[in-house]
Specification:
single chain; 191 residues; mainly alpha; Four Helix Bundle (Hemerythrin (Met), subunit A); 5 helices; 0% strand; elongated
C-alpha cells in the first residue's frame, strides 16, 4: 500500500519511538547522577586526588571533542541536503566525514579514560561519570555502525530524494546522540 500524503513512514516512526525509549534511559541516568551528586553521596565533588588537590576533568579537551561531535551533525545534514539535489557523491563525502568525526570523538574519549586517574569502582563520582559517558560512547558506536551501513548503501546508489528512510532514521539517531552529549557535557564537565 503506498504511503498516503501526510502520514509518517512506519520505519521513521519506529526510530522516533526507539529514540523516545533512549531518551527515557538517559533521563534516568541523569536523575541518578543528580541523586548521587547532590543527595546521597557523602563525598567531595569532584573527589580529591591522593595529594589532596581537587580532581579536574579535562574541560577544554572535552569542549573541543564536543565541537567535533556537534560539527559532525552539521556535516551529516549537509550530506543529506546533497542527496536531496541528486548529489550522491556529496552524500558519500558527508557520511565519510561524519563517521571520521564520530570515530575521533570516541578515540579522544577513550584517551581521556586512560588519563583520568580514577576508575569506575573508585567512588560514586567516578561510577556516575563512567556510566553516563560510557553509555553515551556505546550510543556513538551504534550511530557509527548505522552510518557505516548507510555509507555502504550510498555506494550502491540505494538512496534517492524519494527513498532515503534508512538514512533519515540513522540521521535522527545521530542527532539525538549529539544532543545528549551536549547536555552531558554541560551537566558533568561544566557545572
Amino acid at each position: 500500500m503506498p504511503k498516503q500524503k501526510g502520514h509518517m513512514n512506519a520505519a521513521l516512526l519506529a526510530m522516533i519511538l526507539f529514540i523516545g525509549s533512549e531518551l527515557m534511559l538517559f533521563a534516568s541516568l541523569f536523575t541518578a547522577y543528580f541523586f548521587i551528586r547532590y543527595g546521597v553521596a557523602n563525598e567531595t565533588w569532584p573527589p580529591l586526588k591522593q595529594d589532596g588537590e581537587p580532581f579536574k576533568l579535562p574541560v577544554l579537551l572535552t569542549l573541543v571533542n564536543t565541537l567535533i561531535l556537534v560539527a559532525s551533525s552539521f556535516v551529516l545534514w549537509w550530506g543529506e541536503k546533497r542527496l536531496a539535489v541528486g548529489d550522491n557523491k556529496g552524500l558519500i563525502r558527508g557520511l565519510w566525514v561524519t563517521i571520521l568525526m564520530g570515530g575521533t570523538f570516541l578515540i579522544v574519549q577513550l584517551n581521556e579514560y586512560a588519563h583520568l586517574g580514577f576508575t569506575p569502582q573508585d567512588r560514586a563520582f567516578s561510577g556516575a561519570f563512567y556510566t553516563l559517558t560510557g553509555f553515551h560512547g556505546a550510543h556513538v558506536l551504534v550511530g557509527l555502525i548505522l552510518l557505516s551501513l548507510c555509507l555502504k548503501r550510498a555506494y550502491r546508489n540505494d538512496f534517492s530524494h524519494s527513498y532515503n528512510t534508512p538514512l533519515t532514521a540513522a540521521s535522527y539517531y545521530w542527532h539525538f546522540v549529539d544532543i545528549v552529549w551536549v547536555l552531558l557535557f554541560f551537566l558533568v564537565y561544566v557545572i
